[in-house]
Design a protein that fits this description.
single chain, alpha+beta, 118 residues, 5 helices, five-stranded antiparallel β-sheet
C-alpha cells in the first residue's frame, strides 16, 4: 500500500520549490507512461489513487482510465511511479484524500499531447 500523504507532500513540495526547479525538471523528456497518464486526464484533469480491500497495491485512475492489471502488479507500479514523477514536475496538484488534479501547466501539457483544444 502506498502512503498517500507522502504523495501529497511531494506534490506540494514541487510547487513550493519555485518555478526554476520545476522548469528544470519539466524540460526532461516525459516517459511513455507519463504521457499516457496526461492524455487520459486531458479532459477532466482528474486523478485518483485507488486501493481496494481485496486487491493488493495501489493504482492510478486518470480520467476514466484505470491503470491496473490484476494479473500483473508491475503494471500498476509502473504507472504509480510515473504519477509520482508528474507530481515532482509540478504537473499534478493534490485536491483532497486520494484525489489529485492537473495543474495549469499540467492541463496545457496534457492537452498538447492529446491534441485537445483549450
Amino acid at each position: 500500500m502506498i502512503d498517500i500523504t507522502s504523495l501529497v507532500v511531494l506534490c506540494e513540495t514541487a510547487l513550493a520549490a519555485g518555478s526554476k526547479a520545476v522548469k528544470a525538471y519539466a524540460n526532461k523528456r516525459l516517459s511513455g507512461e507519463e504521457k499516457e497518464l496526461l492524455i487520459a486526464a486531458a479532459q477532466t484533469g482528474e486523478f485518483f489513487l485507488i486501493e481496494a480491500a481485496n486487491i493488493p497495491g495501489t493504482w492510478v485512475r486518470a480520467g476514466r482510465r484505470q491503470f491496473a492489471d490484476l494479473t500483473d502488479p508491475a503494471y500498476a507500479a509502473t504507472y504509480l511511479e510515473a504519477f509520482r514523477s508528474l507530481c515532482e514536475r509540478g504537473l499534478i496538484v493534490h485536491e483532497g484524500e486520494g484525489t489529485f488534479m492537473l495543474s495549469g501547466s499540467g492541463f496545457r501539457k496534457a492537452r498538447q499531447l492529446a491534441n485537445v483544444k483549450n
